[in-house]
Amino acid sequence: LTRRNKRLLSLFTAAVILLIVAVRIFGSEDQAVFANDITPSQLLDYESAEEIPPYAALLREAEPTGPASEAISEIEAVPFAAKSEDVRFEVVTEEGGTTLHWNGDQGWMEWDFTIEEDGLYNLEIEYMPLEGGYSSIIRGLQIDGAYPFEEAARIELDRYWKDSKFPYDRNEIGQEIRPVQEEIISWRGKLVSDFEVSSEPLLFHLAKGPHKLRMIGIKEPIAFKKFTWKTPQTSMSYSKYRGAHPDSTLKDWYQVVEAERFVQKSNTSIQTASGSEPYISPDPKGRIMYNTLGGDRWRNPGEWVEWQFEVPEQGWYELDLKYFQGTRGKTLAYRTIMLDGAVPYREMLHYALPANDNFQIRPLRDKDGTPFQFYLSEGKHTLRMIADASPVQPALLALRHSLVELSELEKGIRAITGINGQGATATSLNLDMNRTWDIRRYDPNVDTKIQKLISDLQSVTAYLDGLNQNKTDLTYAIAVALNMLNKLADNENDIPNKLVDFSIIQNNINTWLGQINYQPVLLDYLVVRTPNTKTGLKEPTVLSRIPYNTVNFFRSFYLEYDTHKLNKENSITVWVQRGRDYAELLRQMVEQDFTPRTGIHVNIQLMPNPNQLILGNAAGNQPDIALGMATEIPSDYAMRDAVLDLTKFKDYEAVSQRFNPGALRSFAYNGGAYALPEVQNVQVLFYRTDILEQLNLKVPDTWDDVYAMLPTLQENGKTMFYPTKEFLPFFYQNNASFYTEDGLRTALDSEEAIAGFKQWTDLYTKYSLPLETPVFFNHFREGDMPIGIADFNTYLQLQVAAPEITGNWKIAPVPGIKQSSGEIARWTAQPVSAALVIKKSKKQEQAWEFLKWWTSDEVQSQYGNDMESYYGLEFRWNTANRNALSSLAWPTEDLKVIQEQSRWAKNMPYVPGYYYLAREMDFAWSRTVLQGIPAIESLRESFVEIQREMSRKQSSFGLGDTDNLHIPVIDKPFDGGIDP
Amino acid sequence: MSLKTEQPLQPVFRTNTGPLFIRRLRQFALECWRDRLVYLFLAPFMLLFTVFIIIPVFMAAFLSFTAYDGFSFPKFVGIDNYVALLTQDLVFLKYALPHTFKFAIIVGPGGYILAFLFAWLIHQLPKKLRDYYTLAFYAPSMAGGVALSVVWIAFFSGDRVGYLNNFLLQAGWIHEPQLWLQNPKYLLNVMILVSLWISFSVGFLALLAGFQTVNPELYEAGRIDGIRNRLQEIFYITIPSMKPQMLFSAVMSIITTLKAGGISVQLTGMTITPQYAGHLMINHVDDYAFLRFEFGYASAVSVVLLLISYFAMRFSYRLFGTKEEE
Hints:
Strand content of chain B: under 5%
Distance between the termini of chain A: 91 Å
Shape of chain B: flat
Radius of gyration of chain A: 32 Å
Number of helices of chain B: 16
Largest interface: A-B, 34 and 27 residues
Largest sheet of chain B: 2 strands, antiparallel
Shape of chain A: globular
Oligomer: heterodimer
């Protein structure tokens, strides 16, 4: 036995040694140096099919014509040469001259100007933002009736923002509260630039002679004073900069500039954050204290922050940054740095911050590690850091081009083989796996095409790796794609059978492509110091974290975390099922407005889990009010007599006028009304204007229009998106209802219901819409689903995260069914979140006061505006209050669509046993679509099951045949008091 | 302590009056007082056991005779819940019960046999290696939910990059990706497979420990007495001498399999699996308790589950229990 033991042991040791050696060998790959031998120009060496070339490609071709010597051409905003009909404007005469106020974001305006000399020019715009929303002002810029390059279609003009107070307020337990963001409105000049494509202002090539400059309204109102064409200033090199100033010897001196104490910033979405770790400045001491800035909230190219500092004497200074940049693997992040409004020297253009896994204090320095120095005069200076993505732009363009070529290749193969389906399975693709192909007979070039793709992708990888001096997530994704392409190249006759690989490659690369422009950097502070000054500032280490966290741990024993006010006579308790930020803002507004006005104190507490309400009830611990509850909760609890019927208050009728009756339908039960809505979610039809135009398709108004357009879409390898499990619209649009009017029986056996169910399942069985679409948003951006129905979140996502298709998509009301009256019924659900009063509450009157205050027009619009100001557009508070909704900063056209769709809001009523409906519809859908059972039979089965459950539930609630639950009838669109 | 209890009872003269049961009670109280230290030591466990096990079980049993929706006071309905469960609840009879039995019969004894087999195999390894293998087998049950979602969801993923689909496609055994986790045809089997993988838990460790408690001299003696192979060794010596561990392991495996239910939720991400394909009794309890707010009925289902576990446990006592004469 011992001999066997020994043998096993030696075997084991051998295996371990082998493993170590293997790790060594493969691990050593990391240390490889990545040659930096691919130039951006090489990457852009392709023929673009786009009508308007991207800026980078244009710049590559532009001959370096010596720009006109200090030639300047000025254009006054007033008078303008021409304008479109729908543009709303006024001419304002102020002290500084006459200016043009362009109110709104529609139409276009045009100016004439003359250029004296051929050459490349910068455009300076003197503008002032007009009061509007929280996003930057965007205008399209055409010269002589055409966009000079792709990026000119969306020129961004910043609004300037600052924190309305510093230091920040603290709440009663000492946590800091972010202040409202205040806009700085003033006249300013800006050289048109786009940090996605170039760190320097954009160049426009203008020939000698008369020209027309046209601005096209896209977003937000603006006032113009003057446009100036200027000769570009090239920034000097560092060595020249050093030579231009005398040497200096300065005393040891340094100043720390806290990142969170900025003077101004370009977007409200750039936000301070709270960090807790050793040596962070200032130390939060176990509380929330906003002591850092940026990270994921300062990552979009062009977003900038400006600080101010003062130096005691004239001379050379160095700049340290304490930053963390490690959420994207080894990818570099870029910042362009401006001192006193200008880039001091070329090296400060897209300065690269290497990735780290901790806060580090690093000076701005060159490749050899020598710190850069700045010559500063005595006194105040401003420092601006601009997120910059221009170095990765060539790779982005090249990759996009490769993706286009890839889909061209796929289209070619589809044309040859006749595979016309969508999806991932052979049946849905309409693909015969058993057929043997001889692809080269039909397309002799297929090999070269794939090889070209492979070599293109390889050079992109080489360029990116050279840039980052490391492998990154994107290049790994490309490596996977290369692997797949190589396999296809080895066996081209297999391509038809592996058609899905194309979409996999596209998906993979696209996922990372969306993030390639992000440049997140989290800053703790900046240090301005004289060279050689030792600041003694420290970085966190693993060892220093241990005592720090231990102290924090012990702090947790004595620090007060509970924001309970002691139970005062006149105070109510509110549980909020939302994030902390939402609750914090609510608390602030209550303290500033509600309590002074009514004398009612409010305890606001977070409720992380919705089950807490029911379990808390069993334990006798309950709030007076619950906010942010799911749509079905109020009626569900009302069936059990746990929620207060609000109709018992005399002014309920008046208050309910604030909302859409279609949305209130969810909260009705047995003649009562059990909650008020807070936020709503609207479904609309999203479509790509560019693609529909290209395919010569019109926006569908009815489902018949949809059926008519689907063949054209599908012939072109595109399809439409419909949220698979959304059955309600088809039933309501067919005038079916789910329950009888007394709410005791299901009405799914009606002719209309069967028609609705059939129409729903036909989308998949007959019109082969995709069964599963994980992320519609991405497909919409790529354009393979240029049309689809989605909710409000998609709207925000498209607004915020899809800059490349800005202006190329629109929304429309959901397609409907033409009724006998000629009207198109567009019924959809409008899920709302509920604010309810618990029945056991002893302070029902006060609670009702609170609900009235909370859902009022002013409070809702202020809350929505503040929320958006704190956190940016993606936190839009889509209030259910009709008046407050129109007061948010919407693009005019979109608001009209949303209001039209809101007319057709018709929510599901909730009756005993309601939960069985969704479950059974799900089952019925999969029976019909996946298992091929006829629609009528499938629905019939569900009908029986639902009825059984409803009857069972009714008897447990003691409801008999003679009872009536009075489901609110909504058969006409809601027109009450909408003024567009 | 033990010394004290062995002392003969001291005669108590004063209590010799009154009716018999009073005297008995007084006697009992006195004895309690005398052994107060023992009770003090017992108290922490008894207290926690009562609060967290005995009271909840009795409350569940009590609730199962009521209609309780979490808000109003429970209403007594007699055995209505049980009658409904056995006569009207189609989902219970058609899906939950048969699925639970199929699941339990395969995963329970199957997992038990696998645990025994692997524990025995590992026991054959040299001591130095044993711990590594033990850790390797025990790890999945420690990782639990996380491993489930990372490893198995990726493995059974429904698109063509899912490991299983990819392998089968490459091998040419299937022509299109299968929705392993959504298709009612496969879901239960996938659940069984995954449960087997995580079944090497405490029971497995107990068995492994059991193997080490067997007196090696017995094997020698057995060989002299004519045992010819390893199988006979296991059957005649190993199993009889590690009955307590086998019992413990069996009980653990019964309990874990019967209360499994989270697994379908973790795999599919849905509280109710497509067409009830992976609906186990625990899912049924969840459905009634947290989706329909019928806590009384849910309690009745869990009481039934408790009874089933109890009988399964009796059965394993019958199999592995140590009898008086052993």
